[in-house]
């Protein structure tokens, strides 16, 4: 049984950092990139967010529940991990291909759009659900705090003028990718991928039901920025 007190303290520390650092970054970036630059990044990130939500396909929520259910049954955990990891690779490939095709067809295939699409690409490495299912919240909190602090340092070091808009957009994707790489490197402590007895069909119905709700919610949460970007200016 994990220490509830220890987990709670680390989560409180992460919540504090997660609330404070974005305030610092947003204030700094607003002065450097100005409203037009911030608006362009926000619109591009919002567009990429649709595809990022599809790439994740509710595997994060579903994976947490299934890993927790498997408990200490190592063979079942290994099998679950392998199945969900491969499903995630499939959905990420589909989402990334759709994103590039969308940008190409819409004439928006530029450096900023590609930089904002980095979180879609790095989703191949997203196994955070494994650590949540294993209740490794101390590790997750420590990793997330480190990523936030490094993101702040990168913004302060690399973003100095409105022309640094692509670099600023790329920092978010790189930071997310760094967190995922840490997860992959530490995963051997908890799982060993296996090819024995894999059954992907058992995940189809629950994932489709979860994804339908999550994708609808994601679209609802992003549509206002899409409409504003289409009808008005980056400054707005």
What topology does this entry show?
Elements: H1 4-56, H2 59-70, H3 74-106, H4 111-116, H5 118-121, H6 128-133, H7 137-158, H8 165-186, H9 204-231
Keywords:
0% strand; 9 helices; 236 residues; globular; mainly alpha
Give your account of this protein's structure.
There is one protein chain. This protein has 236 residues and is mainly alpha-helical. The protein is 79% helix and 0% strand. The chain has 9 helices and no strands. Helix 7 (137-158) packs antiparallel against helix 8. The chain is globular, with a radius of gyration of 19 Å. The N and C termini lie far apart (50 Å).
Overall shape: it is globular
Helix/strand class: mainly alpha
What is the β-strand count?
0
Distinct helical segment count = 9
How much is the radius of gyration in Å? 19 Å
Major sheet details: none
Percent helix: over 70%
Q: Which range does the strand content fall in?
A: under 5%
Q: What is the string of helix and strand elements?
A: HHHHHHHHH
Task: Flag low-confidence runs.
Answer: none
**Distance from first to last alpha carbon:** 50 Å
User: What is the residue-averaged pLDDT?
Assistant: 91
**Subunit arrangement of the protein:** single chain
């Amino acid at each position: 049984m994990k220490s509830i007190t220890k987990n709670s303290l680390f989560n409180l520390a992460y919540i504090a950092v997660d609330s404070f650092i974005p305030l610092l970054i947003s204030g700094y970036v607003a002065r450097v990139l100005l409203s037009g630059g911030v608006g362009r990044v926000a619109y591009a990130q919002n567009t990429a967010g649709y595809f990022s939500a599809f790439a994740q396909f509710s595997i994060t929520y579903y994976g947490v529940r299934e890993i927790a259910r498997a408990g200490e049954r190592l063979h079942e955990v290994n099998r679950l991990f392998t199945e969900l990891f491969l499903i995630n690779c499939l959905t990420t490939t589909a989402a990334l291909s759709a994103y590039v095709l969308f940008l190409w067809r819409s004439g928006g295939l530029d450096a900023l759009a590609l930089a904002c699409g980095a979180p879609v690409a790095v989703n191949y490495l997203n196994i955070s659900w494994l650590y949540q299912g294993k209740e490794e919240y101390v590790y997750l909190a420590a990793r997330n705090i480190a990523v936030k602090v490094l993101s702040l340092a990168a913004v302060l070091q690399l973003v100095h003028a409105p022309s640094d808009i692509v670099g600023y957009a790329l920092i978010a994707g790189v930071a997310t990718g760094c967190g995922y790489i840490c997860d992959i490197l530490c995963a051997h402590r908890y799982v060993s991928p296996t090819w024995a007895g894999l059954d992907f069909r058992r995940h189809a119905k629950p994932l489709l039901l979860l994804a339908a709700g999550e994708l609808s919610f994601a679209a609802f949460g992003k549509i206002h920025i899409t409409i504003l970007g289409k009808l008005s200016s980056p400054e707005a």
